[in-house]
UniProtKB/TrEMBL annotation:
Segments forming domain RelA/SpoT: 121-244
Annotated region described as Disordered, given as residue ranges: 1-23, 275-295
Species, as recorded: Bifidobacterium castoris
Protein name, per record: (P)ppGpp synthetase
Biological-process GO terms, alphabetical: guanosine tetraphosphate metabolic process
Amino acid sequence: MRAPRGASPRRRRDRAPYARRRAFPASRQVSPLQWSIVILDRQTRVNTNELRARLSVIADELAQRDGASPIETSQVDAVTEFIDQMQVYEGAMYEISTKLEILDSEFQVHFSHDPIHHMERRLKSIDSIIEKMRRKHLPLTVRSVRDNLFDVAGIRVICNYRDDVYSVANYLSAQSDIQVLRVKDYILNPKQNGYRSLHVIYAVPVFLSSGAHYTPVEVQFRTIAMDYWASLEHALRYKTDLPDAKLSEHSQTLLDCARSLQNVETQMQTIHRDINGAPQGLQAPVTDGSPRHLS
Ligand code: GTP
Ligand code: MG
């Protein structure tokens, strides 16, 4: 990432997910003898051994009372395996978002420039996982999810400028412990409807008591303008009660908006480069060679 010369634009960072960390501003002086409290962001989680035991008890009760067929051990195993796997996806999502926060804070410290405006992260819901597996005619097993779905853990990185998108993506991709599995540059090659974003799927090691589990995380890098556009287009796509004529009229308008936003962005990027210095030949990251075994 380049070092900007001037001050960065003021941003309105969405700090809601990071609220606890605001209690510890970097400027606060802590004497070497004084311990500072670190808040562990602990959430109530399902203990899979307890769940396994409870499911067996419930199944026995149902079988005795209603004559229901007993739940097979393999079905209980599948449920607990799924919960275990989701915990690994969550870990992978945190690993990547921490790396991104560190990159952003390095830029604040060194260059007074914040490349990331804000981030969003999510784990795919069980319903969405099942829907996608069915849509792709894949078996509903945890192994099949692991082998075929690379967007169970997802992060959206919203940057101020296109240059920031490529800088952040390239700095993250260059880190030696993670692998770039797939790159889709919809900024260089926008989709027909006008959608623009840079999608990168990473494999990141999550270290558990059983060792390192390389786990995929989909990261969508985009600018504020691209995000603004994508949110409305997404809303339109799921608005099913619109007449077809209206839908196609709005789709065409959105395509025009995508082009206008791209022009505005290019002009603002030019001004920003003049103020802060122009980066050289920014391109999307490339896929790594041989993939490590995914968890
Ligand atoms: P999925 O099966 O949907 O995951 O598609 P894919 O595996 O071919 O992935 P792709 O990288 O094309 O898109 C993944 C994600 O990017 C989607 O789930 C959306 O969040 C976002 N996305 C892709 N295309 C569009 C689009 O046209 N409009 C909007 N609003 N979002 C999009
Ligand atoms: Mg997806």
